[in-house]
Amino acid sequence: MAKLILSMDGLVLKEITLTKERMSIGRKASNDIQIDNLAISGEHAAVVTILNDSFLEDLNSTNGTLVNGQPAKKHFLQNGDVIELGKYKLKYVAEHVQKIESTDFEKTMLIRPKALKQAPTSEALSAAAAAAVKNAFGNTSAGQASSAAAAAQPQPTYAAVVTGAIQILNGANAGRELELTKTLTTLGKPGVQVAVIARRPHGYFITHVEGGQHPVLNGQEIEAQAHQLADHDVIEIAGIKMEFFLKS
Q: DSSP assignment of the chain, as one string?
């Protein structure tokens, strides 16, 4: 399990294990990681952890957030990265670091008003997906199962036999569909509202990432923790309504 090591002027203050999917950092006592210093905003940043990966979000803080000395609004954390908030530093330590040569993680997939323009064919959706990923974390190619894993023939998981998808319900792109085939799919508008849908062995889960308002699910605003999606749930993110459904 990953952790953050908080220090100031080279002195280690404490270690924080990332036990929650979303851990907030800021001056207010309501934060998961409180740093009581005037240079730190009340709600300064958040670290979202999904599966074995974590990423940092600056929550429009007054003085900004640095990662390895560079300003960062959104940063996919790697072992040894140093987050700087004023005079304080948080070192990210992934205790189980593995080399992934060909991963199936889709780090982000952003739905933007002008991202999907073609007819909803598979070719058009692929082109739209490629366009939507610009200015985000980037993506990696899908990993292939090893011959040993194929020989073992494990029982298929929920996610192996069921594929989730979303259909946009309003706006210029109403009717467009996007299959959620990657492990991580990010939806929304950077700087306004962003959420992540994680594909797990036992289902699909949505988690709030960025923005003052959380996504709305079936008319109710979701909490900070991950929420499992059900067939035909209606999601609203950054003014865009979409229906989540399962395809066998």
A: --EEEEEETTEEEEEEE--SSEEEEESSTTSSEE---TTS-TT-EEEEEETTEEEEEE-S-SS--EETTEE-SEEE--TT-EEEETTEEEEEE-SS----SS---B------TTT--S-SSHHHHHHHHHHHTTTSS-B-PPPPPPHHHHHH-PPPPHHHH-EEEEEE-SSTTTT-EEEE-SSEEEEEETTTEEEEEEEETTEEEEEEEESSSPPEETTEE--SS-EE--TTEEEEETTEEEEEEEE-
Other beta carbons less than 10 A from residue 215's beta carbon: 24
Q: Compute the distance between CA of residue 114 and CA of residue 126 in angstroms, rounded to an integer.
A: 15
The owner of tokens 């020989």 is 151
Phi, psi of 120 (to 5 degrees): -75, 55
pTM value is: 0.47
pLDDT at 85 over 60: yes
Q: Give residue 217's identity as a one-letter amino acid code.
A: L
Contacts of 42 (CB under 8 A, 6+ apart): 26, 27, 28
Residue 96 pLDDT class (50, 70, 90 cuts): low
CA–CA dist 25, 22 (Å, integer): 10
Q: What is the pLDDT of residue 242?
A: 92
- Residue 145 has a CB neighbour count (10 Å cut-off) of 10
How far apart CA 92 and CA 66 sit, in angstroms, is 13
